[in-house]
Amino acid sequence: MNPFRVAVLGAGDRGKAYSKALKQLENDCVLVNVCDILDDRAQKAKEDFGFEETFYDYRDAVDTNDIDIVIVCTPAYFHSEMAMYALNRKKHVLCEKPMDLSFEKASEMVACAKRNGRVLAIGHQYHNFMNFCKLKKVFEQGAVGRPVLMRCEDTRPVRPKIAMHDAEFGNGGPLNDMSCHFTDLMRWYFDADPVSVCAKGLVLAENSPTLASIPNKAVDTVNILVTFASGDVGVITVSWAYPKNKHWRQQVSAYGPAGTVEVAGDAVTAYLEDDNNVTYELDSRERDETENPEKTVLRHFLDEINGVGKVQVTGEDALKAFAVSLAAVKSSRLGRPVSLQEIYNEKPSIYSAMHEKEEGRTW
């Protein structure tokens, strides 16, 4: 079988991460086209990773040189547009998370893949981080019992790529860009879907000089409580409003009737009621999958294209994580819990949910 011919749309941080991983799969893939609106960035990717040609317009990158696979690594606002363009031309697509800023457009992306009989994968690479793989073992073994309350916190300074804070044309802030990682992990751990969300968010960086050019800033600091069909509960805190001299921090823990599990860096330890504390490790195959998370995402994607496996996160999976983000925006705006069914019915965008009004509500 000839190797797949690949186009990468977006040569920023995520595009570089996938290009690096693709280079390690050179028996399976050929890096052909790279596209970016910044020519110097596209040229740098060509030099660093060996792409054959650079493009400014994503349509040309998809349509030129007999491409088989398109990887979308642009700001989320463009994800569905670019993915559907490729899918409609019978290309397989790996799209970075978050899926989009609009649930309607993200849903159309999933339908487009089905209609064209092509594989769509969403790049939730946290499945392949060592600590989160170890935490999966805790749940598989039922070490702390069920139901579980799981807490995830991720706090960072204002992002240097300021479009990530844009609610209308960027990535929708950490509530969309970051919390979807944790919602997706919780679905994986609990083997259950989210059903309702209660949240309160703020724009703490409203007056940040760094973000002065963004008229519609997304919520940058939020607490989210997610109830799952299994009875498990997720509590997510994300912020992109730390002072610039404060380092990024991530904390993850879970509490069950039989004990508590804590994640400290790559170490995962369960503290059990019987005083038998357990430290979790990975076998050699599992460790291999965590060495390059993007490579593992790609490996599963290629396996499904070849009919010998499945992607790690499908479009349908990612839609459910995206729906939680939208429900959190709406809950914060209206001051009430929001069911996931509301989001599935209404198909809002981050921007529309931020400005929604409800009679009798003053929040």
Please give a structural write-up.
The structure is a single chain. Strand 2 (29-35), helix 2 (39-49) and strand 3 (53-55) form a beta-alpha-beta unit. The protein folds into two domains: 4-125 and 291-314, NAD(P)-binding Rossmann-like Domain (Rossmann fold, 3-Layer(aba) Sandwich), CATH 3.40.50; 127-289 and 319-345, 2-Layer Sandwich (Dihydrodipicolinate Reductase, domain 2). It starts with a strand and ends in a 9-residue tail after the last helix. Helices cover 36% and strands 25% of the residues. By secondary structure, the protein is an alpha/beta fold. It has 13 helices and 15 strands. The chain has a nine-stranded mixed beta sheet with strand order 14-13-12-11-7-10-9-8-15. A six-stranded parallel beta sheet has the order 3-2-1-4-5-6, with helices on both faces. Helix 6 (130-140) runs parallel beside helix 8.
CATH-assigned fold name of the largest domain? Dihydrodipicolinate Reductase, domain 2
The description of the largest β-sheet is: 9 strands, mixed
Domain count? 2
Strand residues, percent: 15-25%
Radius of gyration: 20 Å
Total number of beta strands: 15
- Count of individual helical segments: 13
Low-confidence stretches: none
Give helix % range.
25-40%
Question: CATH class of the largest domain, please?
Answer: Alpha Beta
What is the CATH H-level superfamily of the largest domain? Dihydrodipicolinate Reductase, domain 2
Measured distance between first and last alpha carbons: 59 Å
Morphology: globular
Give the helices and strands as they follow along the chain: EHEHEHEHEHEHEHHEEEEEEEHHHEHH
- Structural class assignment: alpha/beta
Spatial arrangement of strands, main beta sheet: 14-13-12-11-7-10-9-8-15
Please state the average pLDDT score: 95
